[in-house]
Design brief:
This protein is mainly α. About 80% of the residues lie in helices and about 0% in strands. The two termini are about 15 Å apart.
């Protein structure tokens, strides 16, 4: 599948943006997850101790993927 330049850019920029959001506001993301669980699944969401750190770790993963995508797709 051939991607356009715009699609390539959107892939790595979107991944980088997701990473920054996970690093910057993990508490808000956990709150939003709890709200979504209550509204759509009708279950209680109970984040365990250290959840914010794990959300930030996911953010680092997103940033690593963004860097790899940029390197692979800009060839």
């Amino acid at each position: 599948m051939k991607l356009s330049d715009t699609e390539r850019t959107l892939l790595w920029v979107g991944s980088a943006l997701a990473g920054v959001v996970h690093l910057a506001i993990p508490g808000f993301l956990l709150w939003l997850g709890g709200l979504s669980y209550r509204w759509f699944l009708r279950v209680e969401f109970d984040p365990k101790p250290g959840a914010r750190g794990r959300v930030r770790l996911v953010g680092l993963g997103f940033l690593a993927v963004a860097a790899a995508l940029r390197r692979l797709l800009d060839r």
